[in-house]
Amino acid sequence: MGSGRLAMYYLYILKCADKTLYTGITVDLERRAKEHNSSKLGAKYTRSRRPVKLVYVKKYRNRSLALKAERRIKKLSRDEKIKLISH
Fold first, then answer.
1. What is the pTM assigned to this prediction?
2. Which domain holds residue 16?
3. Which residues contact 72 (CB under 8 A, 6 or more apart)?
4. Residues 28-78: pLDDT tens digits?
5. CATH code at 58?
């Protein structure tokens, strides 16, 4: 692994132009937000709902923890997600 530095994973929630919410994970938050807003590399869901705004971020030590958290959040109702991002 070279430097011994482990990548941090970020769970994020985006608010789309149509007021819907999109949840994902990444190791590079800045790059991923740019992709969602201006690149064909952004998720198909967000491409037709631009611009998107980053409204929530949480850091995780590894991909497994980030994926588990992402699954939990995706199961929440819209109201529960809004409550989460407003804290």
1. 0.91
2. 9-82
3. none
4. 999 999 999 999 889 999 999 999 999 999 999 999 999 999 999 999 999
5. 3.40.1440.10
